[in-house]
Each structure stands twice: as structure tokens, then as C-alpha cells.
Amino acid sequence: MQTKAAGKINFSNLKNISYNRKGTASGLNIEAFTRNNSQKSNLNFTFDVNGKGFDPNSITGNFKIYMNPSSFENFKIPVSPYDIDITQNGASKKILLKTSFADASIDGTFDFNTLATVIANNIDKIKSEITSSLSDS
After folding, report:
1. For the chain, which residues score pLDDT lower than 70?
2. pLDDT score, position 32
3. With contact defined as beta carbons under 8 Å apart, do 24 and 7 qualify?
4. Helix or strand or coil: residue 17?
5. 16, burial (CB in 10 Å: exposed 0-12, middle 13-18, buried 19+)
6. I want to staple 63 with a disulfide (CB 3.0 to 4.6 A). Which of 40, 54, 67, 84 is the partner?
7. Is 15 left (phi over 0), alpha (psi -120 to 50) or beta?
8. Closest listed residue to residue 31, CA positions, set 22, 41, 23
9. Helix, coil or strand: residue 107
């Protein structure tokens, strides 16, 4: 894995760390951090992040990521810019995602862990349907 980053990280409020960083990563394997063999990856990207917080339920900011050819588990990740805006007002959250192949907006009161589970379950269902329809052909 190779990484380069520049910018600032402000630790003056440990409950709400702020950051403004730009950089690159190549050959990032998430499996090395999670120690979960099913999360083998080869992530290659540049990033420009400006935000606050690391807890998914309190994070805010603008996160620009340009994915170069990458993979996660057995999935190829499309080469694309990913522009993610996350704002919060009390318990209400808003996420705007823009890519070269799709845009999404999520707005409401939700927990990121629950949202991640719902998305993962739906991806598994879509994957199963595609696999089934391909094997029926």
C-alpha cells in the first residue's frame, strides 16, 4: 500500500475532530485493518476531504473521491468521481452522492449502521436476482 496526504487535522475537540486533507492511496487492502478475510480489497483513489467527526452518526462534510481501477471482495468498483456531501441538523441527516453513473439523495432521521445494513441486504438481493436471471438464460 502506498499513500500520500497533505492538509490539516484539528484535534482541539476530540469529540469532533475536523480535517481538510488531499491525497492518494494505492493498493489499499481493508482486510489488513479489519482482519476479515472476506473484505479483501485493492483500492486505488485520490481524495479531497473537508469535514468533521469520524463517528458515522455524527460526521459532516464534503468528501470527493476519484476511484481508479479498484476491487472490493469480488466486486469491481467503477472508475468514477464520487462526490459525497453529508449535513446534519439535530437528528436529521442529509446525504447527497454524485457519481458519473448515478446520483442519490438520502434525507431523514436514521442511524448509519442501520442504513448500511439495509443497503447491504438490498445489494445481496439484487446480486442474487442478477445471478439467477443470468443462470436462467
Report:
1. 130-131, 133-134, 136-137
2. 86
3. no
4. coil
5. middle
6. 84
7. alpha
8. 41
9. strand
Distance CA 111, CA 34 (A): 21
Are 60 and 87 spatial neighbours (Cβ–Cβ below 8 Å)? Answer: yes
Confidence (pLDDT) at 55 = 84
With beta carbons less than 8 A apart as the criterion, state whether 32 and 42 touch: no
Whose CA is closest to 52, among 94, 117, 8? 8
SS3 category, 42: strand
Residue 38 identity (one-letter amino acid): S
What is the per-residue pLDDT for 115?
A: 74
Say what the alpha-carbon torsion angle 59, 122, 131, 42 is, to the nearest 10 degrees: 10
Contact 36, 22 (CB under 8 A): no
Residue 64 C-alpha from the chain's centroid: 10
| Contact of 65 with 46, CB cutoff 8 Å | yes
Instruction: Report the predicted TM-score, pTM, of the whole model to 2 decimal places.
Output: 0.76
